Amino acid sequence: MDEDKELISDVQKQISDVQVQISDVLKEISDVKVQISAVQKEISDVQVQISAVQEQISHIQSCLNNPRTYWESLDPLFRPELNDTWWQNEKNTLQNEKSNLRIKESDLRIKESDLSNKILNLQKKENLLLKLKLQQLQANTE
User: Fold this and answer.
1) pTM listed for this prediction
2) Cα dihedral across residues 34, 37, 39, 45: positive or negative
């Protein structure tokens, strides 16, 4: 009779231990999902920044393609005289700005890629935790 009680007590302790382990794994999985969500938000923010940079690049290209329209868009009080010298200087400035924006876009794309890789790694971790949970459940039923 005492052996049965001791066996039952041991089994109950093992079940309790496994339940605690499963609870810990579930908490870790929840933490990973929160991290994934935060990284996805970061990616979304980066994509908004990329879009804004692309709009700026497009605007600059439009200015480069239409010097007269660009000149007319300038404040009349501060608009310089439209001539080849002014346009050449302005064109160089616009092209430099466009180059800098392309670099910024490239940096943002690298950041986006790094964040996507971070999500993949977090998803791998989540999958491993799910496998661990499954193993614990299987051990609990044996």
Assistant:
1) 0.78
2) negative
